[in-house]
Write a structure and sequence with these properties.
5 helices, Rossmann fold, 4 strands, hydrolase
């Protein structure tokens, strides 16, 4: 098996809504292409509030309805992530600022706003945590189209 060609880490605030949803979607899309061995895909959170917990049940419900599995347990971003991953994708400007503050001096990862890949031009992927299931569906669709566009740009 060849070494992975691409490594990406999704980072949102708590790692139970946006980032694990995007991780699951990208894994699903990469698997459909038969390219799992070419990717390292993970997600993490800025904060440590949910470390070790499953994703938000509303997000898990949306993914299940779309046939996408998600077994991720929340974790907090760590300094090694800035060396292990080529790209760290954040969901809003606050995430980017937090990552820049946390970034170690020897970091090699590039930090980008994930919404930059949205073909509709919606750069900020809203956190649905304080919303309802409909807000999670909106977030899912936003993450899905960003994942599709992101993959196109990697080929």
């Amino acid at each position: 098996m060849a070494d992975p060609e691409m490594s990406v880490l999704f980072v949102c605030l708590g790692n139970i809504c946006r980032s694990p949803t995007s991780e699951a979607i990208l894994r699903y899309l990469v698997k459909q292409q038969g390219k799992e061995s070419q990717w390292i895909i993970d997600s993490a959170g800025i904060g440590d509030w949910h470390v070790g917990k499953r994703s938000d049940p509303r997000g898990l419900s949306i993914l299940k309805r779309h046939g996408i599995p998600n077994e991720h347990l929340a974790r907090q971003v760590c300094p090694d992530d800035f060396r292990k991953f080529q790209l760290i994708l954040a969901f809003d400007e606050s995430n980017v600022e937090d990552l820049d503050d946390f970034r170690p001096k020897d970091a090699t990862a590039k930090v980008e706003l994930f919404g930059n890949y949205d073909p509709k031009g919606e750069e900020i992927i809203q956190d649905p945590y304080y919303g309802n299931e409909e807000d999670f569906e909106v977030m899912y669709k936003h993450c899905y189209r960003c994942c599709e566009e992101f993959l196109k740009k990697q080929q």
